[in-house]
Amino acid sequence: MLQRLMLLAGMLGLAACSRPATEEAAANRQPPPAPPAPTSAAVDAAAASALPLKFVAFGNEPFWSVRVDGDALHWSSPENMDGIDFTASTEVLPLQRRYNGQLQGQAVSLTLGAGPCSDGMSDQVHPWRVSWSIYGRVLEGCARVAD
Length: 147
What we know:
Helix content is 23%, strand content 49%. An 8-stranded antiparallel β-barrel has the order 1-2-3-4-5-6-7-8. The protein is globular, with a radius of gyration of 33 Å. A hairpin with a 2-residue loop joins strand 4 and strand 5. It is an alpha+beta fold. It has 3 helices and 8 strands; from the N terminus they run αααββββββββ.
């Protein structure tokens, strides 16, 4: 009986010195690898996809507007109140979207990017900035969601 007690005491002593298997596994467990950082192109594409597909771009001095609905655009100005419809291809740029087309045989482009933007004539702040390249001129303006 004494032998059994000594054997039991020895086993208990060894058990007290060792960690349970679950603790040992937890101590040896490595943290999961961090996910890869998004590429610049992925970030740019995500930012550009957050820009609206249907909006009105406008500027003043001189006054102009371009209504955009996908690849269908409509340009108007005080000299051409009826405006002109045209289509444009879309180019995704870093944090921007550019629309390239032909208007009356001339290359035009409209670049939309994140704002804020003030049109300089009102107290309104608009969510996006635009650059409108037409007839050899580059006009700056603002954009808002189309009505």
